[in-house]
Write a structure and sequence with these properties.
The structure holds 2 protein chains of 2 kinds. Chain A is of the alpha+beta class. Chain A has helices spanning 48-67, 76-84, 97-106, 108-113, 139-145, 148-151, 175-183, 219-234, 262-275, 277-297; strands at 2-12, 19-23, 26-29, 31-36, 39-46, 115-116, 121-122, 126-128, 131-133, 165-172, 195-202, 207-217, 250-256. Chain A is built from 10 helices and 13 strands. In chain A, strands 1, 4, 5, 8, 9, 12 and 13 form a 7-stranded antiparallel sheet that branches. Chain A has a 4-stranded mixed sheet with strand order 2-3-11-10, with no helix packed on it. In chain A, helix 1 packs across helix 8 and helix 8 (219-234) crosses helix 9. The longest helix of chain A is centred in the last third of the chain and has 21 residues, at 277-297. The relative contact order of chain B is 0.19. Classes of the chains: A alpha+beta, B mainly alpha. The interface between A and B is medium-sized, with 30 and 17 residues.
């Protein structure tokens, strides 16, 4: 087993609305403070957490659900576990090596991503880099983050981050809107319920540098990451919010130092997941059965 | 996975670079913008428009012009502003100071004009304040 590095460059094909909250009815994008030559600047970024979820965890959870035909049979706790990593729900900490061994054997994606079983936290082996905007304020950091040949391509005079921030405005309708169109007098002349909502986004064309480090990775781990990224791309390849309105589409370019056949590893992972289906489904249900049966006893 | 090569990376960076000639001195831009605001106040048609709407009208004229012009065409931009305050063509044609502002704008290259309009678009309130100061200092001679 070795450590592998995947370097990624993603260009926004549509506005990226990776939000950090709202101010009034205006969405504010995620920014990170960056020390720059004349003080601290707040630069748009994509958190590693968001990349981890959208690029890796969600596609692998969906794949598991499809391969194990789990549709309609999952509890809320199981869904939470698969799609969000779960949460400690049992009192007192304990470490069960057997449980961890079963988890790693039957659900290799959890070895990669880490998770929280009802009674213990299991760390993952995949590190995800934050999405760093290619802009003047990040130039020095990007030269450190990128491989030498790519760092050498960075121009001396990048645009400042402010040039990559745009705004959107949409209106949200309601039943009153169409009623008003048809004749509001019947409804007592009420105004339409149209509401304006707006926010910031990172403009199309902006470029983010990010990446993954697979620590002590097996062929199955590599296959899982490759399958996840392919599924993410096949599903539209988006990040952040408002994907339903066309936001967040990315064009992803990758390079890695992986020295095995990635497509073969992906096939191997998919076959492995199918092969352990029966044991895996039983294991998954047993993890959460314990908790509910204990509750019933109380 | 699509391969990340130096050529591909270079292609993605093409639009992210600041050209050498792009940086305009912000004081220079503010000075020009305040002169334009002064000219709009001077040519505001007080016969046709309510005098109390002077600054709101100038602000909405600037905003409208910025929305309509995104290619650095400053002549068109100024035309929209002047039309918005219902300036009299004869008075505009005879305004030597406005002609000097136009000459300064004409001397800029395309990128600088785009940058100038972007500067104005993002600082409407600030420009109004500076322009109004100029107006208050010189309005006796302007009317």
């Amino acid at each position: 087993m070795s450590d592998y590095h995947i370097t990624c460059v993603s260009q926004a094909l549509s506005p990226v609305s990776h939000g950090a909250g709202v101010s009034g009815n205006e969405q504010v994008i995620m920014r990170e403070p960056v020390a720059y030559r004349d003080g601290v600047r707040y630069i748009p970024c994509i958190t590693g957490n968001a990349i981890r979820h959208r690029f890796i965890r969600e596609p692998l959870a969906r794949h598991l659900c499809e391969a194990w035909e789990l549709g309609g049979s999952l509890t809320v706790d199981e869904l939470q576990f698969l799609f969000h990593g779960g949460a400690l729900t049992e009192r007192g900490s304990r470490v069960s090596m057997q449980e961890q061994a079963d988890l790693f054997r039957l659900m290799p994606c959890m070895r990669l991503l880490g998770c929280s079983l009802p009674g213990q936290i299991v760390p993952g082996s995949l590190d995800v880099m934050r999405g760093t905007l290619v802009c003047a304020e990040n130039a020095d950091r990007l030269r450190q983050l990128l491989p030498d040949d790519l760092a050498g391509e960075l121009p001396q005079r990048l645009r400042p981050a402010a040039d990559f921030i745009g705004r959107y405005q949409y209106t949200r309708g309601s039943h009153l809107q169409s009623a008003a169109d048809m004749g509001a007098s019947e409804l007592g002349g009420e105004d339409s319920g149209m509401m304006i909502f707006s926010g910031q986004h990172v403009i199309p064309g902006a470029v983010f540098v990010h990446g993954f480090v697979l620590r002590h990775a097996s062929a199955l781990d590599i296959g899982a990451v490759a399958l996840a990224i392919r599924k993410w791309r096949d599903a539209g390849g988006s990040i952040g919010g408002m994907a339903s309105k066309g936001h967040g589409r990315l064009e992803l370019l990758c390079r890695s130092d992986i020295d095995i056949d990635i497509e073969e590893a992906e096939r191997e992972y998919a076959e492995y997941v199918r092969a352990v289906k029966d044991d895996g489904v039983t294991f998954l249900h047993s993890l959460f059965l314990k908790k509910s049966s204990r509750k019933a006893k109380r | 996975m699509n391969e990340l090569t130096t050529d591909e990376f270079r292609a993605r960076l093409a639009g992210l670079t600041l050209e050498e000639h792009e940086e305009l001195d912000s004081e220079e831009m503010l000075d020009l913008a305040s002169k334009i605001v002064f000219a709009l106040a001077k040519h505001f048609n007080r016969d046709e428009l309510e005098a109390t709407t002077l600054w709101d009208r100038i602000a909405s004229g600037i905003t409208t012009a910025c929305e309509q012009v995104d290619n650095g065409d400053v002549t068109r931009w100024l035309d929209i502003c002047l039309a918005h305050v219902m300036a009299t063509p004869g008075a505009v044609a005879g305004d030597a100071e406005l002609r000097s502002v136009m000459a300064s704008l004409a001397a800029m290259d395309d990128q600088k004009r785009i940058q100038f309009l972007a500067f104005i678009k993002s600082r409407v309130y600030g420009i109004l304040m500076v322009g109004r100061d100029l107006w208050e200092q010189r309005k006796g001679g302007a009317k």
